[in-house]
Design a protein that fits this description.
By secondary structure, this protein is an alpha/beta fold. 44% of the residues lie in helices and 16% in strands. Residues 96-367 form the Tryptophan synthase beta chain-like PALP domain.
Length: 433
């Protein structure tokens, strides 16, 4: 598999190099040089396979001979060892539940596959591998648990202090060992900027083998393609040619993966980018100018991102496919509508949480009567239990898994820094000394 740096196309790497390197020169994201295309016959055959068999085939098609099919199969089996049910809400709308992994969020897919692949390809080096990543909520837990206790890899996670839920913080800030966590006195975009600066810093590059587990890493992106195929495989055949998918979007990795699945030949009529009031992309699609504003805190906190990293990949894909970016549908949902939508979905007999509600609202606003809609459930409602109870004005019967319940009793082990890169550099060097 060959990939090129979107910001500096002359930089071309293999899949293994992109996996180990994470980010290219000039903070550029890597993008596949060749995009797989499956025929209608191949798509139909893929949709008849099991999730594990199909995912192995898709990933092997992208990666090529760099990893054997048996190696990829082992990674997939170890990573995707939980269900991905499609649950009907009404006659023409269903939710694809992506939150049945160990940290109850869709990011378990990408983080676990990336950890398994790194475990196979991280050969001996004279510098320790450090996974440096930023989170607005769920990525931190998924990455921490995916890499916890893996040998020769240390994980450092930045998150905005006071801007993620207590459970989200406890999930990844109580592990210790090879997991270090840093709360930053700023928003997610501040954390993301610090991570990008770290990758450009000559001192850290000299001393450490830096990588990232954000959706900037190609392994995470490829993993997410697989569950779009799984969702479509569970639909009746007659629904597949009129499918609309709404994706709750923050850093836009999830939507990028869906669009790549569509590019492969997966029958999706259109995608809807569903955001909260951090609406840089909706405003760009409507007015044609890119103007990130200060990030605002919302109920759907994992989507509180104003400068989404993966947007450059989406633009690159549309350019490569000779399609207008204006073809992409979008929705923007404020907190008032988010709360009302959680209530509306509950009235239909389904318990959701804010991120899911943003996707459902955007889907319902755009779905035509002759279409079938899927919205992605990216987090288990138990992770937002108090907030959902406040919305519904009643207690709800959601039981936290024992392993997560125990985490709530443990102390937070995080460091705290200002939004100052020298503070981050000094702390990283101290942690790794």
């Amino acid at each position: 598999m060959k990939l090129y740096n979107i910001n500096q196309p002359s930089e071309q790497v293999t899949f293994t190099q992109a996996l180990l390197q994470g980010l290219g020169k000039n903070q550029g994201l890597f993008f596949p040089k060749d995009l797989p295309k499956f025929s209608i016959f191949e798509i139909n055959s893929l949709l008849e396979m099991s999730f594990i068999e199909r995912s192995t085939h898709i990933l092997s098609t992208y990666i090529g001979s760099e990893l054997s099919k048996n190696s990829i199969l082992t990674c997939v089996k170890n990573a995707f060892n939980f269900p991905v049910p499609l649950v009907c809400i009404n006659n023409n709308v269903a939710i694809l539940e992506l939150f049945h992994g160990p940290t109850l969020a869709f990011k378990d897919f990408g983080s676990r596959l990336m950890a398994q692949m790194l475990n196979q390809t991280n050969h001996c080096s004279d510098k320790p591998m450090v996974i440096l990543t930023a989170t607005s909520g769920d990525t931190g837990a998924a990455v921490a648990h995916a890499f916890f206790n893996l040998s020769n890899i240390h994980v450092i996670i930045l998150y905005p202090r006071g801007k993620i839920s207590a459970l989200q913080e406890k999930l990844f800030c109580t592990l210790g060992g090879n997991i270090s966590t840093i709360s930053v006195n700023g928003d997610f975009d501040s954390c993301q900027r610090l991570v990008k600066k770290a990758f450009d810093d000559s001192v850290l590059r000299q001393k450490l083998n830096l990588n990232s587990a954000n959706s900037i890493n190609i392994a995470r992106l490829l993993a997410q393609i697989c569950y779009y195929f799984e969702g479509v495989s569970q639909l009746p055949h007659q629904m597949r040619n009129k499918l609309v998918i709404a994706v709750p979007s923050g850093n836009f990795g999830n939507l990028t993966a869906g669009l790549l699945a569509q590019s492969c030949g997966l029958p999706v009529k259109k995608f809807i980018a569903a955001t909260n009031i951090n609406d840089t992309v909706p405003r760009f699609l409507e007015f044609g100018y890119w103007e990130p504003r200060p990030t605002l805190s919302t109920f759907s906190n994992a989507m509180d991102v104003s400068s989404p990293n993966n947007w450059s990949r989406i633009e690159e894909l549309f350019r490569r496919e000779n399609k207008s970016i204006k073809e992409l549908e979008y929705g923007c949902v404020n907190d008032f509508l988010t709360e009302k939508t959680v209530q509306e979905i509950a009235d239909l007999g389904y318990l959701s949480e804010p991120h899911t509600a943003v996707a459902y609202r955007s889907l319902c606003d755009k779905l035509h009567s002759d279409e079938f809609g899927i919205f992605l459930g990216t987090a288990h409602p138990v992770k937002f239990k108090e907030l959902v109870e406040d919305f519904l004005k009643k207690k709800i019967q959601l039981i936290l898994p024992i392993v997560l319940k125990e985490r709530m009793k443990l102390p937070v082990l995080s460091y705290n820094i200002p939004t100052c890169f020298s503070s981050l550099r000094n702390l990283i060097l101290s942690i790794m000394s």
